[in-house]
Amino acid sequence: VLRVVPPLELPPLVLCSLLVQEDFIIMQDTPRPSTGPAARPHAPSDAPAPYRLTSAVVAFPSRWSLVDKAGQSLAAIHRHVPHFMEHMLRRVQAVLRRIEPGTLVTRENWMLID
Hints:
Helix content is 27%, strand content 11%. The protein has 4 helices and 2 strands; from the N terminus they run H-E-E-H-H-H. The chain is globular, with a radius of gyration of 17 Å.
């Protein structure tokens, strides 16, 4: 039996990675700058701000590197996934926008690797 008593001596994601083998990825809705190179003047004013990978512990990446994806938007992370941009991006963003603070959201994923 593991007893964890505050104050934690480890960052929460590090503690999670020691307790279970699942990956933990934090995507945050980040405001888009209104000026500068990251601004997108061609985007409609109601376009959602990009969700970015801001924190993570990943035990079992499947042909990707956390170092390469850190800080990137959801769209940039999945740019090589066939049909993601045209079929999935808006749906995933809509799901993320509907999550209420304090709500636990889980996702299961599987893949076949040749």
